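User: quick one, fold this
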Amino acid sequence: MFLECVCAAISGTAGNLATEYASPYLRYFFRFGKIVEDFKNRRNELESRRDELKDAVDEALRQTEVIKKGVEEWLTKADKELGEAQSLEEEIERNKCFNWCPSWGWRYCLSKKVEKKNLCISKLLETCNFPLVGQRPPLQGIEFLLPKDFMRSESSTLAFNGIMKALKGDGVNMIGLHGMPGVGKTTLAEVVGKQATEEKLFDKVVIVRGVSQNPDINKIQHRISEILGLKFNASTEEGKAEELFKRLKGEKKILIILDDVWEQFELRNIGIPFGDKHPGCKILLTTRLRQVCSQMNCQEEFKLNILSEDEAWALFKDNAGLKDASPTLNDVAKEVAREAKGLPLAIVTMAKALKRESLNGWIAANQRLKESRHLDNQDVCGGIYSCLKLSYDYLKEENIQSCFLLCSLFPEDYDINVELLTEFGIGQGLFCHINLIEEIRREIHLALSKLQKFGLLLETDDEYYVKMHDVVRDFAHWITSRGENMFMVKNELTEWPKSEIFGCYTTISLWNIKIVNFPDKLEFSKLKTLFLTGEDYLRVPSKFFEGMKTLRVLFLQRVVFSMEALQFLTNLRTLCIMRCDVENISSLRNLENLESLSLIRTYIDELPEELVELRRLKSLYIFWVGDEDRHVPPNLISR
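Assistant:
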């Protein structure tokens, strides 16, 4: 007891001296416990900050952000310091017994080591100031992955080598690639973009798909801005063009690929600096029409031709999965492949349609192609259409074929909303043997999936949308240009067609029209489906609908009309009104056979009580915009 008191007195006196004179040597001896306590607190703080930062990094990676270099370096240092701190703490724990009878040399060395680690951790904590751990990178153009069905041919190799030479040379800013529909221009342009990226010929490579007949300036501007990581401040096309012009001038070397150009347009309207204004900016355009290359002042032009018979067979065999096929099946398949006439689109579509088909199926398909030749008098399109018709015929089910034709009612390069498509299909009577609307919806979704599998519809990045290749869309219109099920699909009409005999049409689809004077007293005796969309708000008179008593599906977009005009449409099953200005919505009560009603972005103060009279209504979809209160009568929906 006496010894303990003496030790305590000496320790207290020495501790006071250490505090008074602040000698680091005495601190290492007599404030060991305090130093260790500070060390553990610092270590715990560093571990907590490290874990928080790692969580933030994980979330940033989920959002496809690129982690900042400083963050990664800090985490590496933190892991190193925590590892060393763990070893140091284990050393302290192993020598706890020395707290009662300390070895002064051990305590001095360990205390000094812990104090040094404290200082390192403190400095590291001071540098952990990261407002953002990552940032979204500009898009890199994932479309430049080599297409699975791409096969180099003599023609594509010549065109590819010529384009690459032109891109590497000086004095050539505009390059044109032309060829017939389905010959593979888009695919070759993607390969060029991939090669230019790998060889680092340009700082940026941008591909704009589907420029089409009526270039959407706004869409093109936004596609280019995505790759450049540019966020527009302007709202007008002119303002965006100015911002894009300045941004592109900042890229020393850039390649812009404009795919599927149909007519001449001004690059300056988009904001693309060209020629003397930016020698480092080069354009590659693809087009079906050779004169477009001349109109766009292409300094180099390249034509992509169809495949030779051997090349076509190699592509067909690969896509049809005929690697281990019998000699008999191979012989029949070669005859079928010849009917594609070397057109890559037709080859791939036919091959996928017949993949895993039996020998009898191949023989029947071959005979069907041969017998249909007399119907196809067009030199080029007839060959494509007869090949595509093979895929269409192999759908076999009328409901799926109707889904396919329904997709052709939308404009070129249009992202087709699957839910809208489903409502239209229900109105047309698809899968009418099924009573539950949810089961019909499921069947239509499966039909669309089958169409994608057969290559008749394209997949998109969004599962809620599908697309149709423009050549396939033209083929669908070719199918519906004769017979009992005739379609009329037109875009941007400024006046009503005077020479048309509308009594023969079952489907009419008019998009972005600017018609001022609509006819009245026209008889649409067979019309079952009508799409009517205005470029701006289109005023349609009530009498226009009088002769449409057989109508089952009506889609109106950007149209001004009175609901009373629809009172004649007693056979209507599906009504979709989008972005319209409507009057007298209570008149909907006259549509006694209506099964599906969609009111999308259409201003309506309240749902009318008269909707209860729609006894057959199965689907009601309403999408309102704005903060205004809308009134729904009590128990209306339940009734």
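User: anything notable?
Assistant: The two ends are 93 Å apart (CA to CA).
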